[in-house]
Design brief:
heterodimer, A: 324 residues, mainly alpha, 14 helices, 4 strands, 2% strand, globular, B: 313 residues, two-stranded antiparallel sheet, 13 helices, 78% helix
Chain lengths: 324, 313
């Protein structure tokens, strides 16, 4: 895709490097999978594998939007808090009106609005993205806790819960939605003009601006999509858990970022794919699922996720230095 | 050069105006705000924050960020509480607090300086590690029943002055001298402002950068001691989110996140501003969660003003 990788392709008449890296990640998924099936009898069962896919889908909804943000060399630390607020507002709306569609609209609107604000802070005010979204995180958390006032809403209509628990031709509905999102998202990011402009902004913002890319508008679009993805994830989360309370999203940001980075999207911008992120979510979910099956205490999860994040960035740095 | 030098004090009027508005507003809105007792309260309540905001200024001056401070502070507080219960020795307690904090800081610094991982990612990773360890070591429970020597750190007084205030005053004097009177301080500014110049001058800048993060970790240990003493317990999640207050104090104080441009007195005022905001909102019975929202808005506001001031289109 870039000049550097096409040179590498000319030097070594083998597979394109992007594909090799994707295959390496798939191999890692396979190794973790084989190791887990040897270690735990409960792993290689249809029920558990479907469960892994369903959990991966949830993570993928968050990470998909985040991938676009990271491709522009940004970061969205408010993803988890956005899910918290969107889930609480949607849950309350569904409970008070009895109409799931109002909840769906509310969650998507909240997500998009938060993303829009993030995008405006980053593009118009040029606040560094990790600071802007970090401030947003705490604002959202305060609003969510105040809105819920310690209460929990639970018990949603059966039709709505199908979004998290239902099956269609034997596959869980979230997994099918994930597949659709993966196809549409990949087409958008890799094949559309807007997607290529987004990659260009991450690779070289000055060049993008000089060649007429509307940088600010594309950045706002990217952050809004990330918020929208979080809003959608909150709906699936809500349907799956069948309840919402204020601290619902707190622990979700770290895994979402980890999945994007393991997936080979570079924190320094310009490089990344949704297929990579899909493999990343699969790998992270397998690791976390495996820890569950092996009865590792849940308290270890932030540690493992943190180590994975740092390791992924380090490998990315080493790789890019080796290439240059 | 003069423009840059002028920029720092230029920020003070805005911050002081905000502080004045808050003081007047809270005095009118509540009866209990403008009392000597409450002024002491504000100082005491801001003490933990100030202890981590000072080294956070150093970190941010190097164009870095430390998101792990709150989690490291929690980890230090449970580690030192367990040491205090096991040994009863104050020296051992302090040593463990400093050692755990410094170790976390060295980890951050190593990742940032030697592996060149962006600071916010490296410290996000350490955040996860420290949070996990604090929960695992304690099983999620508070460590209670600290000896009197530890309780003295927050509750005691020397010559009629409360110990936290003395501690904070000493901390500020030390950090101010370190930043403005030593060679290390100049390196801190240069690490953010002109790292290349340091390299060309043959300064081992990686070691200096590592030292900045280690320093932040060590102060998180002291802050952990103060917090444990205040709560009479080591609590595995008590420090979560405190890094945000510290970052907010630095940002409000006018230290820029770019080019090593900032000043330490600003952080002092920034931390007091946040202390006053929290205290006033407490008196108005605003929930703790909404207080954090207010601080978030304040930070975004500060950045917005900064953006309008520095950007000429």
């Amino acid at each position: 895709m870039t000049a550097a990788s096409s040179e590498a392709r000319a030097a070594r008449p083998t597979l394109p490097p992007e594909l090799i890296r994707l295959l390496l990640r798939l191999a890692a998924v396979l190794i973790v999978g084989v190791a887990l099936s040897l270690l735990s009898g409960a792993f290689l069962t249809v029920v558990n594998l479907v469960n892994v896919l369903r959990q991966a889908a949830l993570l993928f909804f968050m990470s998909s939007g985040l991938t676009l943000v990271v491709i522009t060399a940004g970061l969205d630390l408010s993803v988890g808090a956005t899910i918290g607020l969107a889930a609480c507002i949607a849950g309350t709306a569904i409970k008070s009106t009895g109409d799931p569609w109002i909840g769906v609209a509310a969650a998507l609107a909240v997500g998009a609005a938060v993303g829009l604000l993030n995008g405006m802070m980053v593009s118009l005010l040029r606040i560094p993205s990790f600071i802007a979204t970090y401030g947003m995180l705490w604002v959202l958390q305060g609003v969510t806790y105040t809105f819920m006032a310690g209460a929990t809403v639970y018990g949603f209509p059966h039709g709505f819960r199908e979004l998290g628990n239902g099956y269609f031709f034997g596959m869980p509905i979230p997994v099918l939605v994930m597949a659709a999102l993966l196809v549409v998202g990949t087409l958008f990011a890799q094949r559309s003009i807007w997607g290529q402009q987004i990659t260009m902004i991450g690779a070289n913002p000055t060049a993008a601006r000089l060649s007429g890319v509307p940088v600010r508008r594309r950045l706002i679009l990217v952050y809004t999509l990330s918020g929208l993805a979080a809003g959608f994830a909150s709906l699936v989360f809500l349907a799956r858990l069948n309840s919402a309370e204020a601290d619902i999203g707190g622990s979700l940001t770290l895994p979402a970022i980890a999945a994007v980075l393991i997936g080979g999207t570079s924190l320094f911008g310009g490089v990344g794919t949704l297929t990579g992120t899909f493999v990343g979510t699969l790998l992270l979910t397998l690791v976390l699922n495996g820890m569950n099956l092996l009865h590792v205490e849940g308290n270890w999860q932030p540690l493992v996720t943190g180590v994975i994040i740092v390791a992924a960035v380090w490998l990315d740095l080493r790789g890019s230095r080796a290439r240059s | 050069m003069t423009a840059l030098a002028l920029k720092r004090p230029m920020r003070a009027p805005g911050l002081l105006a905000m502080l004045a508005i808050m003081l007047v507003g809270f005095s009118i809105a509540t009866h209990d705000f403008a009392t000597p007792g409450n002024a002491l309260n504000v100082l005491l309540q801001s003490s933990v924050l100030l202890l981590i905001a000072l080294p956070m200024t150093f970190v941010i001056l190097t164009e870095g960020l430390d998101l792990s401070i709150g989690a490291v502070l929690s980890l230090c507080s449970v580690a030192l509480a367990q040491t205090a219960l096991a040994t009863g020795s104050f020296a051992a307690t302090l040593a463990v607090a400093l050692a755990v904090g410094t170790a976390a800081g060295v980890l951050n610094g190593g990742l940032v300086a030697y592996l060149r991982i962006p600071p916010f990612v490296a410290t996000l990773g350490t955040l996860g590690v420290a949070q996990s360890l604090a929960l695992i070591v304690t099983g999620g429970q508070s460590v209670v029943g600290l000896p009197n020597s530890v309780l003295f750190v927050y509750g005691g007084s020397i010559l009629g002055i409360r110990t936290p205030i003395l501690l904070v005053a000493a901390a500020y004097a030390l950090m101010h001298a370190l930043l403005y009177r030593t060679r290390f301080g100049s390196y801190v500014f240069a690490l953010g402002g002109n790292r290349e110049a340091l390299t060309l001058a043959g300064v081992p800048w990686r070691r200096m950068l590592l030292a900045v993060y280690a320093l932040a970790g060590a102060w998180a240990g002291v802050a952990g001691l103060l917090l444990a003493s205040r709560l009479n317990a080591g609590h595995p999640t008590a420090g979560i989110g405190m890094e945000f207050d510290a970052i907010a104090a630095v940002a409000l104080g006018g230290t820029s996140f770019e080019r090593g441009n900032g000043w330490l007195p600003g952080t002092l005022i920034g931390a007091l501003t946040i202390g006053i905001l929290r205290n006033g909102l407490n008196l108005l019975a605003v929930s703790s969660a909404l207080q954090v929202s207010c601080i978030g808005l304040l930070v975004i506001l500060a950045f917005t003003l900064e953006a309008f001031r520095t950007q000429t289109p």
